[in-house]
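Model it.
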Amino acid sequence: RVLLWAVVLLGLFIFVLGLFIRSTMGDVDKFDNDYFHGFRSLPWAMFTLFRCFTDGCAADNGTPLQLHLAEAIGWRFVMLYVFVFLFVTVGIFNLIMANFVDYVAVANRRRSQE
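Modeled.
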């Protein structure tokens, strides 16, 4: 049950962050490069954010997307990225991992009591 709520929290966080990015970046066609193509709509922005949290944050050509965003937006993006990345990796992902560890510990305790 806690795992479900952790996944819901991650999904809601990605949704809100996707809305924030879409509203602050506006039309991505105003940029003269294809690096921000992953933020052209809300679903694509959410998918790009999910990729950044799980797989690796790369543009379509394989270069790090963080560098391109930092050049276009500035230090505000860098500070926000560091905070959000730490919140998701240290906070939410550790919450999900703690559920698995707790499940194994409870199963081990039950097995040793039998």
